[in-house]
Amino acid sequence: MTNDDVPIGRRVARWRVRRSMTQQMLADRLRRSKSWVDKIERGARTLDRYSVIQELAHVLRVDPEVLLGQP
User: Does 2 score more than 80 pLDDT?
Assistant: First the structure.
């Protein structure tokens, strides 16, 4: 499975764990609920706004393209 094939939620979860963050910690930094983070990571909620992807990338300290699976 290439990085392009990995759903964005799974990439968010991987980077969150790499940054030693819990779902609650990520949610707090984003000013969102833990449930929202859980839904994103499970793919139950889509990330369809680039501004939200940018915010996630900023908190996770990665480029937005990394979360989008782009080289």
Answer: no
